[in-house]
Task: structure prediction
Amino acid sequence: MTKKVIPLIDHRLLAPVLPTQLETPTGLIMDAAGRPLHDLRISVTDRCNFRCVYCMPREVFDKNYAFLPHTALLSFEEITRLAKLFIAHGVKKIRLTGGEPLLRKNIERLIEQLKRLRTPDGQDIDLTLTTNGSLLSKKAQSLKDAGLNRVTVSLDALDEVVFKHMNDADFPVADVLHGLDVAHQVGLGPIKVNMVVKRGVNDQEIIPMARYFKSSPFILRFIEYMDVGASNGWKMDEVVPSAEVVQRIQSIFPMTPLPANYTGETAQRWHYEDGGEAGLISSVTQAFCSDCSRARLSTEGKLYTCLFASEGHDLRALLRGVGSDAEISTVLGQLWRVRDDRYSELRTLNTDGLTPARKKVEMSYIGG
Ligand code: SAM
Ligand code: SF4
Ligand code: SF4
Result:
């Protein structure tokens, strides 16, 4: 059978350079380390109403910060077109993120469009969203009605002073807790709660957070503070290793480890002996790159194959240029096949916890 020859795509838009003859994509793909493409995280805005100290510190993300203009953002139609091509390559789960995704106007319309997509064998995709919870009580019902399956909500403390210090936007704890309750009532579950732990800032909240959430319908996950982006001034000694978090909780609430739900699950699951579950996400001390099946689409349509990548691949130029679906799909396949990212493993191997200086994109832009 003769292979279809697809016209050459502008090499300046892509790295690495592609061969001059591209094969028509055949569906499921593996990267250079044998990892499938399974998850797609889509950042729908680089803006946020919080200024979390570990993500968008106010000194950097101030009134002079140049956020993307609206014309730079992928439209909902462009996002849906790309999502369909990613799904043909094996994506089964899509997470909307940002920035704060609920700030994107009419996000429900995007959810409706994405929800209509099917995997090659006719299955629904798992459609989820990560939010800081500030607009959740208002939006939970419309998100559910649009077809969203579930949400993950970030909350770093129950103590008002500590939480306000973390979000640096004077946002109260009670509103996030209310958002969680409304999301639960409308059926956006199972709901996970993300707590980034920063030593000396909110680590005293580990036990109160564990106590509160172990008897709730929500699964709390403790996340190691990561060296994403270039603005949070990350230092290894501000990371509280998951092993220490477990030790601290064990001394009060005995827990036993649970098996993973599926390969590539980011959290290690623990079961409280008197009921309830917690998760530990140990991206710094126990990297999980060997199972990483996540691609990230930035707000302006760049594909990043790793949270710590220096460069993205400009898909928007293809979408707005002459790229046909077949061409863009071929490019996606090519980019995934050469993927060999394993930043966190390399960082973990480096005993002093420091990695060679490199340019990194901000998490609010690439999507967490
Ligand atoms: N604004 C939404 C939120 O906060 O849930 C979605 C975007 S946020 C970038 C996604 C997740 O990344 C949040 O749970 C946040 O806590 C986490 N995150 C941000 N910066 C981080 C860092 N330096 N280390 C670890 N997790 C981080
Ligand atoms: Fe905003 Fe989420 Fe980053 Fe906090 S973690 S600044 S809520 S994008
Ligand atoms: Fe995946 Fe990169 Fe994180 Fe490793 S460092 S788990 S490859 S996103």
User: Anything to note?
Assistant: Residues 39-366 form a domain with the TIM Barrel fold (CATH 3.20.20.70).
